[in-house]
Amino acid sequence: MTVPISLRALGIPESGIRRIYNRAAGLSDVISFTLGAPDAETPAHVCEAAVQAIRDGFTHYTPNAGL
Q1: Which of 6, 22, 32, 44 lies in the 20 to 30 Å Cα band around 38?
Q2: What pLDDT, in 10s, does the model give residues 5-52?
């Protein structure tokens, strides 16, 4: 099934992230971490640390200068 795309939508320029992704996809020595879901379980200590961080109020973005 083909989904029609409007001419207006086709005229939207490609994003910088998409350009970089497409460029990297053509390289043989690049490993892409952009798409997909990990197939490993999150370790219990990582889950516990995440829950504790939520309880401690770390629920917002960090300052753009980092922590």
Answers
A1: 22
A2: 888 888 999 899 888 888 888 898 888 777 677 778 899 999 999 999
Q: Which residues contact 22 (CB under 8 A, 6 or more apart)?
A: 14
* Nearest-angstrom CA–CA distance, 11 and 8: 5
Q: Per the structure block, which two tokens stand in for 21?
A: 């992704």
CA atoms within 13 A on the CB side of 32: 15
Cα–Cα separations (whole angstroms), residue 14 to 20, 30, 54, 58: 10, 21, 36, 34
What does the alpha-carbon distance between residue 31 and residue 50 come to, in Å, rounded to a whole number? 27
Alpha carbon distance 10, 64 (integer Å): 34
